[in-house]
Amino acid sequence: MTIEEIERLAAWCASAGIGEIEVSEAGFSLRLHMRAVVAETPMAAVAPKAETVFKGVRAPGVGVFCLDHPTTGRPIAGPGQVVRKGETVGVLQVGPCLRAVLAPVDGVLGAALIEDGAVVGYGTPLYELA
Q: How far is residue 128's CA from residue 87's CA, in Å, rounded to a whole number?
């Protein structure tokens, strides 16, 4: 792995909010631990945020979000499709590994909130469910 690839990986982790990552290849292992830098804000200046509850499908981990299955090229699920709890609605790809994105509840799938091929972090909203 070159220094440029390591710098890109570190920048990607920082932008995705990943605190630690470990990469292993034949004869090579790398562990990056990112330290978050948070500016101090006086408590009086912090306004309470209204909490909104997202009702939809979130990323179960970190990876590249795929709307089409990488091995078949066919769409996995589409807007307006009725889905059941546990049904696959997308795929996260990390290198050669694929991880199914499952519907958390029964519902009707809305439009994808993330573009095909986008890098997502854990908990990123992917679809709304009605």
A: 15
Q: What is the pLDDT of residues 2-60, one digit of tens each?
A: 777 777 777 777 777 777 888 877 887 888 777 655 555 555 555 666 656 778 899 99
Q: Which two tokens mark 46?
A: 């912090």
Q: Which residues pair with 86 in a beta bridge?
A: none
Q: Are residues 114 and 65 in the same domain?
A: yes
User: 106, 54, 68, 92: which is closest to 77 by C-alpha?
Assistant: 68
36 and 60: one domain?
A: no
Domain enclosing residue 65, as ranges:
56-129
The Cα-based distances of 114 to 18, 71, 79, 121 in angstroms read 18, 20, 13, 11
Query: What predicted TM-score, i.e. pTM, was given to this entire model?
Result: 0.58
